[in-house]
Design a protein that fits this description.
Blueprint: H1 3-20, H2 28-41, E1 46-49, H3 55-62, E2 68-72, H4 75-84, E3 89-92, E4 105-111, H5 122-132, E5 133-146, E6 155-158, E7 168-171, H6 175-184, E8 188-195, E9 206-213
Helix pairs in contact: 1-4
Length: 216
């Protein structure tokens, strides 16, 4: 990811935690998919890639995952996560160069972290995610597809986030294109679903959840 993304999340770490630490309370599909991932991977280690302050990582633990680590580009996000979820592991790291050994994970999640990757960065990130999964390991990713006035396949520039004057791009992605990039990295599609936004609870975008696996 580019430096502006790190600056963005360094800047909003505290506000992000305050605003979104309980976001899964209003997202039953997200909770069900995360529980299904944990059920599928058994007792093996799982990482949340682009974890922010750890709300998804914490839910993975609540679902029964025994070894959970959150990895985020932003050191302040990592610090915030450790302060809120002291029973989880956290580390600073980049999707394009994950600080994990080959084949160490039984599972991984990446909820909305790939939306900041430019097109030429996405294949690198998916190769990294495939590298750290063990054979048979699974990866659950979530991303925005489109929103009112923002078509699929385009980037939307924002100048403010959570009350902070920060400039950043967020990409709205084609699920078929994401699946093709993942396949080129050695990950096969297991399932995907698309849902509408939850009124008055989140940004008004359609979202895709894509479950991938590294072949055994």
């Amino acid at each position: 990811m580019s430096d502006p993304v790190r600056v963005l999340y360094d800047t909003v770490a505290t506000a992000y935690d305050e605003a979104l630490s309980s976001e899964l309370d209003t997202k039953p599909l997200d909770r069900a998919l995360l529980a299904g991932l944990v059920d599928s991977i058994g007792d093996g280690p799982v990482a949340d890639l682009g974890c922010g302050p750890g709300q998804v990582a914490a839910h993975l633990r609540r679902c029964g995952a025994r070894q959970v680590v959150g990895i985020d580009l932003s050191p302040p996000m990592v610090t915030t996560g450790r302060a809120r979820h002291g029973d989880l592991g956290f580390a600073a790291g980049d999707l394009r160069a994950l600080p994990l050994a080959d084949g160490v994970l039984a599972g991984a999640t990446a909820f909305y972290s790939i939306i900041h990757l430019h097109p030429d960065e996405r294949p690198v990130a998916f190769r990294e995610m495939a590298r750290v999964l063990r054979p048979g390991g699974q990866l659950l990713i979530a991303f925005h597809i489109d929103a009112p006035g923002i078509p699929m396949g385009t980037a939307h520039r924002s100048e403010n986030f959570l009350g902070h004057p920060v400039t950043f791009d967020g990409w709205f992605l084609d699920p078929d294109e994401v699946a093709r990039i993942a396949a080129a990295a050695g990950l096969v599609e297991v399932a995907h679903c698309v849902r509408a936004p939850i009124p008055d609870a989140e940004y008004p975008s359609r979202r895709c959840y894509l479950l991938l696996a590294r072949p055994a």
